[in-house]
From TrEMBL:
It comes from the Bacteria. It comes from Saccharopolyspora dendranthemae. This is DUF1684 domain-containing protein. PANTHER family: DUF1684 DOMAIN-CONTAINING PROTEIN (PTHR41913:SF1).
Length: 263
């Protein structure tokens, strides 16, 4: 077995462990959009609402914790639109609060059916031929870029620091890149000719390390991953930016999850 294949298998095994997190994406059991009227929701203890700036919860006797501290009165959560959410612990579940234009709450439970039935993520066999060298071209200033979402009527706005250019079979392709999820590197959402055939139709994502000083960047399509919406209808994943469709088959990376292909 080649060193590359071994490294990919280690990466893939770690990816599956992350997906099997008892409070991860496969643990979602509900999604509710908050309104300006305080309300209760079946899966989330407490009373929840929002205004134009923030989301709120009143425990109303429920034992709720945020960042390890008990919530004893009305708690306010002001979050960045399309940015990271925050979690409220409530017994054996966690309530995720997120801002996606408006505010939503999603309950993560280790007893979720999707988590219980998870059998791993099918993927193409690793092929070093899908490790592509490209060039990152930064914009003078990051550009706010609006994209659609798998949830009808919803949109996301992300900062695009620049473009990545690469060649495949003698033809140049250009993809808009977003900032990496960990604060470094790039996150590239794309579709290709396998989308809706062997891979999830809406999107896949390939993450890169920080580009080199000369702009060189490596795209390893063997590590192209599904977004959460490939596994659950309770996710609000973004669609790729306009132009991020590759007109050829990227026969690398994660395939359509078992649960989607069987349904």
């Amino acid at each position: 077995m080649s060193t590359y294949t071994e490294q990919w298998q280690d990466w893939h095994a770690n990816r599956e462990r992350e997906l099997a997190d008892p409070f991860g994406w496969l643990a979602l059991v509900s999604l509710d959009w908050l309104t300006d009227v305080p309300a209760t929701y079946p899966a989330a203890p407490g009373v929840w609402w929002q205004d134009d700036e923030a989301a709120y919860v009143d425990p109303q006797g429920a034992e709720l914790f945020h960042e390890g501290e008990p919530i004893t009165g009305v708690q306010r959560f002001e979050l960045v639109n399309s940015g990271p959410g925050t979690r409220v612990s409530a017994g054996d579940v966690e309530v995720e609060v997120a801002r996606r234009s408006g505010y939503l709450i999603r309950v993560h439970s280790p007893k979720a059916e999707a988590l219980r039935d998870f059998r791993g993520v099918p993927a193409y066999q690793p092929d070093p031929g899908w490790v592509v060298t490209g060039t990152f071209e930064p914009f003078a200033e990051p550009r706010p870029t609006t994209v659609g979402a798998v949830t009808p009527g919803l949109s996301h706005v992300y900062q695009a620091p620049g473009l990545v250019r690469f060649e495949r079979n003698g033809t140049e392709h250009v993809l808009t890149a977003f900032n990496g999820k960990t604060g470094s590197g790039l996150n590239i959402l794309f579709t290709d000719a396998t989308s809706g055939v062997t891979t999830y139709p809406a999107n896949r994502s390939v993450l890169t390390a920080e580009p080199a000083a000369d702009g060189t960047v490596t795209l390893d399509f063997n590590r192209a991953i599904n977004l959460p919406c490939a596994f659950t209808d309770l996710a609000t994943c973004p669609l790729p930016p306009e132009g991020n469709h590759l007109p050829f088959e990227v026969t690398a990376g994660e395939l359509l999850p078992h649960e989607r292909s069987e349904s």
